Amino acid sequence: MRARTRALIATAAAVALAVVVGLFAAGCGGGGTAYDSVRLGYLLNLTHGPAIIAFDREFKNGLAGLPVEPQSFQTGPEEVSALLSGSLDAAYIGPGPYVMAESRAPGRLVLLAGAVTGGQRLVATPESGIRSVADLAGKNVAVPAHGNTQDLTLRLLLQAAGLRGDDQGGDVGIVPVKNSALGDAIDDGAVAATLAPEPYAAKLEAAGTVVPVADANAQIARWKIPATVLVVTAEFARAEPAATRALVAANAKAVARAQAHPLVVARAFNDLIEEQTSKTIDEPVLLAALKDMTATTTIAPGSMQLMVDAADAAGYLGGPVPPGALVPRSG
């Protein structure tokens, strides 16, 4: 699994780097109106609530004269590919994919702000006997994708418990399973546990399919790892500084609104997934999931470095990630 994972990441990095025609400045200078719109990515996760509600208000009338075009993705690594290939200008993304992009294409992305902290939990089937991280030995655990934030968080938990993934010579299987397929993977016995973003962990728990792994979730909460951060391509930030500043301001307003009005987030999320999948999730489940996360533009000190350390230990990084890349900039 490790060789395949590295090969896939190396291939994606090669494709991304092939489109680079020069290094962009680290800061946001310049001006002009080189873009006709802001192509803004997000995931169909409750942890992207600020983005989801902003499309109907803060982003509705555009940013500094540029209309906002939302684009949904299933995983953060897919968003990174779109950002680096030039088909996306900005994105709400997990810190894991961001730090790996920075290691392989330094300076191509700019971290603007946080959006949500928390919102990921380790859950396991009752019959698996998994009640602590130590019990994951010999078991298969699902994450949305290799190299995403849940994958890296799981590796941090394993390291703290003296365990390793099977791609690092350990005996814990780390299996990529898209959120929409989690229920089937558990029912089929392919995995015994999952470290999932919300609302997917809460949905499985409400159905009685899984139970929380308490010690793991307490540790995740202490780490204060961002679930979602806001990034922009350096090219866009340099060409459209006014729109970049407007994006930061709009995000701050949407984050504040999301934290103050969880019901608005729950209903907007349900409207969105019903539109895209013809399904909804019970509102009480969504509200319970929202209690386990905080909408905030602040990124806890050291939390991004944890992602770098986990990615480095997994062999995912293509190069060093400087401390300055882990600190939000306004543009």
Write structural notes for this entry.
42% of the residues lie in helices and 17% in strands. By secondary structure, the protein is α/β, with parallel strands linked by helices. The longest helix has 20 residues, at 241-260. Residues 1-32 have low confidence and may be disordered.
In short:
The chain has 331 residues and is α/β, with parallel strands linked by helices. The protein contains 13 helices and 11 strands.
Task: Set down the secondary structure blueprint.
Elements: H1 2-18, E1 38-43, H2 49-54, E2 68-73, H3 76-85, E3 90-93, H4 95-104, E4 109-118, E5 120-124, E6 140-143, H5 149-160, E7 173-176, H6 182-187, E8 193-197, H7 200-206, E9 211-212, H8 214-223, E10 226-233, H9 234-239, H10 241-260, H11 262-277, H12 283-290, E11 293-295, H13 303-313
Parallel strand pairs: 1-2, 1-3, 6-7, 6-8
Antiparallel strand pairs: 3-10, 4-10, 4-11, 5-8, 5-9
Helix pairs in contact: 3-4, 4-13, 5-13, 7-12, 11-12
